[in-house]
From TrEMBL:
Pfam families xref list: GDP_Man_Dehyd
Similarity comment: family membership: Belongs to the NAD(P)-dependent epimerase/dehydratase family. GDP-mannose 4,6-dehydratase subfamily.
EC number: 4.2.1.47
Domain NAD(P)-binding positions: 7-347
Catalytic activity from the UniProt record: GDP-alpha-D-mannose = GDP-4-dehydro-alpha-D-rhamnose + H2O
Cofactor(s) in the UniProt record: NADP(+)
A GO term for molecular function: GDP-mannose 4,6-dehydratase activity
Gene that this polypeptide is encoded by: gmd
Name of this protein: GDP-mannose 4,6-dehydratase
Amino acid sequence: MTNKVALITGVTGQDGSYLAEFLLDKGYEVHGIKRRASSFNTERVDHIYKDSHEEDVKFHLHYGDLTDTSNLTRIIQQVQPDEIYNLGAQSHVAVSFESPEYTADVDAIGTLRLLEAIRFLGLEKKTRFYQASTSELFGEVQETPQRETTPFYPRSPYAAAKMYAYWITVNYRESYGMYACNGILFNHESPRRGETFVTRKITRAIANIAQGLEKCLYLGNMDALRDWGHAKDYVRMQWMMLQQEQPEDFVIATGKQISVRDFVRMSAAEVGITLEFKGEGVDEYAVVAGIEGDNAPALSVGDVVVRVDPKYFRPAEVETLLGDPTKAKEKLGWTPEITVEEMCAEMVLNDLNKAKQHALLKKHGYDVNVVLEH
Ligand code: NDP
Ligand code: GDR
């Protein structure tokens, strides 16, 4: 058990919630920054939150925002963290084309604000810094598989902002001797994944369609190839990266890739549906070719359940990403423990349970709207 103190930005997000659990298990006192919203936004961490009047409270939330320098500086001064994990971001690639300036402010300058706060407060030798870098930096890939030395070629405002954050982290390490490092993480998912990222959009829609709550899943580019891992495996690595003698950057990936289309097939199979894909390009669609078991009472063979909607195409697409995690394996002994098949099964089961509850409510006359537009 440790008595270290950690500060997590983005604690209410997918990774932030798993990392907070992981650090609390190790005995850390964990502080997280949450944004003020007009409704509750702490669903992913509610199960670890204790009322501040209780005894031995080790998890604390602070209102804050990565666009607010004085707020960040004050929180860091108050918390005096041994480790900062900068996971907060406008993290949706497609949304970054709609809000490029905000994405740059949060994802790029937000990182600079934290690093400057550490320096301003004289914590360079105390506080270790983890930056949530991304495989999106590789964008239009220059080498396959991608590793720590592969040149970057960002393809979105999100990736361009994260590229600034990557280099400013390297620069503060080199300029001021700070323990600051980048985890270049490939896509990682879980039942806690945001509903508009493609894997969760798929598992949720398949569950809803099987239970008769939605008719059809509309997707963009189904040819896109991704190296998908499980968020639980990846947050373990974020912590490991801050426990070394010297700060270094690491690629974190599984070393395997599949297409969006294959992830749809895999998810459908989890509820007992076999899909057949027909047509091409924007006219591609998938029909139900077989049904097994009783998880899809709403469906019949021949139903069209997946179609392409070009509104989900991006102005510039990242077609293929495949990571080489050799350095993480050799230097840190890290290997992913959960396969994409196991992760998909866990996500579908979670969404199926929710869909079954909603279907029951609907059957008894309650209004249930589960359709997502983004
Ligand atoms: P999520 O989108 O699930 O979580 C993002 C978090 O950032 C949320 O807590 C969100 O708050 C918070 N946030 C957003 N804007 C601000 C802001 N202006 N100020 C403070 N906090 C803010 O992302 P993930 O957990 O999936 O990813 C964590 C990090 O890792 C992100 O930086 C992401 O870009 C990066 N990354 C993710 C990968 C993945 O596959 N998941 C792969 C590689 C990198 P709220 O809950 O209020 O929205
Ligand atoms: P990504 O994840 O852009 O890789 O960024 P996302 O799940 O959004 O897209 C993956 C691929 O699927 C294609 N796609 C669709 N995507 C979405 N969201 N919705 C659709 O309907 C759809 N149809 C096809 C996309 O075009 C893309 O090719 C994620 C985020 O977590 C980033 O923060 C992180 O840095 C990277 O992963 C690594």
